UniProtKB/TrEMBL annotation:
<dbReference type="InterPro" id="IPR036249">
    <property type="entry name" value="Thioredoxin-like_sf"/>
</dbReference>
<protein>
    <recommendedName>
        <fullName>Thioredoxin-like fold domain-containing protein</fullName>
    </recommendedName>
</protein>
Length: 175
């Protein structure tokens, strides 16, 4: 299933060619498609999340996708502290990872792509006073942002949480 129009794909390819400097790895935690539904293991959004990431990763040689079955991949689940599906972990060399639960769509898709691009370029977007404040953090902090796909305000808050997570190794953001 094609999720982006030809024009969208062209624009994203151009954007990725210009903006991605370092390799990006998406680790998707999902379930295997099955005709048999096991109670407690349903994930109606998992196939769409996988389709979206496959389409995005096909737009640039710098974007890679690794798919984990949530119920089988116990060690990666522990490593990334994943407790819901679908979950997308975005990583790049030398940067903190970002975690997105659900399907990035609507306003959240732009937040998702922007976080990936900032991570790839090592861009820090916070004011110096904020960065200095973050340097005083001395223990792990997790920012959990609950969003809806059609909220501009939620998108702004999610973007700020991602910027904070990219700024300090003691801050993690879960959108």
């Amino acid at each position: 299933m094609v999720l982006f129009t030809d024009q969208n794909r062209k624009e994203l390819k151009r954007r990725f060619r210009k903006d991605l400097k370092k390799e990006i790895l998406f680790s998707l935690f999902t379930t295997n498609p099955s005709l048999l539904t096991i109670p407690g293991r349903e994930c109606p959004g998992c196939p769409r999340a996988q389709e979206l990431l496959e389409e995005i990763s096909g737009l640039s040689p710098k974007i890679h996708l690794k798919i984990h079955n949530y119920f089988d991949a116990l060690e990666p689940r522990r490593q990334y502290a994943i407790d819901k599906i679908p979950a997308i972990v975005t990583e790049s060399e030398g940067a903190n990872r970002l975690v997105f639960y659900g399907i990035p769509q609507g306003y959240q898709l732009s937040v998702f792509l922007d976080g990936m691009e900032r991570m790839s370029r090592d861009v820090r977007s916070l004011a110096n006073t904020t960065r200095k404040g973050f340097s005083k953090i001395d223990r792990l902090v997790t920012l959990r942002i609950f969003v809806s796909s059609n909220s501009i305000t939620a998108a702004s808050v999610a973007k700020l949480a991602q910027a904070a997570a990219l700024e300090s190794h003691l801050i993690s953001a879960e959108i």
